[in-house]
Amino acid sequence: MRRYWLMKSEPDTFGTEDLASRPNQTEPWDGVRNYQARNMMRDAMRPGDQVFFYHSNCETPAIVGIAEIAGEARPDPTAFDPEAKYFDPKSDPENPRWYLVDVRYARHLKRAIPLAELKALTDGVLADLPLVRNGNRLSIMPVSAEQWEFILGLE
DNA sequence: GCCAACGTTGGC
DNA sequence: GCCAACGTTGGC
């Protein structure tokens, strides 16, 4: 059964346009330093899984595109690099603490679907979507098949 | 820029 | 193992 996800990114740092212009339109999703998010990448994501690409911390937070998981999870090399922003001396190459997946651009949505719009629709299938809950900070979250179809229906 | 919510750290 | 302090996320 196909799995669905939502991944946040700050458009000022790395937006859909950046993903679409990468070689192979693919980017290693490095720098995740949250255990819940790590566990989802490492233990639950599979190549081919579909991803809502979400723009956070910007003027109009919104789901803006679709991407897909392009490979199996692998250790995040930036955790081992003392020069890297997300270097973690406690991540041992023999027993990596942090993982990443490769994310490939699929398409833009026909229109961006703003968070504010989703928050107005939380009576039904979106009730359990962490994105619309107050104070949510998860940068990677699961989306059910029902939620996926519902949101695509707003496109 | 403010601040609420949350995760992590570290003292005890 | 508790919990206060701290840092970060991210909407507004």
Structure in words:
With 155 residues, the protein is of the alpha+beta class. The protein has one domain (4-135): ph1033 like fold (Roll). The protein has five helices and eight strands; from the N terminus they run E-H-H-E-H-E-E-E-E-E-H-E-H. A six-stranded mixed β-sheet has the order 2-7-4-3-1-8. Strands 5-6 form a two-stranded antiparallel ribbon. It binds a DNA duplex (12 and 12 nucleotides) through residues 8, 10, 34-36, 56-58, 61, 115-116, 134-137, 139.
Which features would summarize this protein structure in a list?
8 strands; alpha+beta; DNA-binding; 155 residues; globular; ph1033 like fold; 6-stranded mixed beta sheet; two-stranded antiparallel sheet
Strand order, biggest sheet? 2-7-4-3-1-8
Let me know the average pLDDT. 91
The backbone outline, from C-alpha atoms, is globular
Instruction: Give the termini separation.
Output: 23 Å
Topology pattern, helix = H, strand = E: EHHEHEEEEEHEH
Total of domains: 1
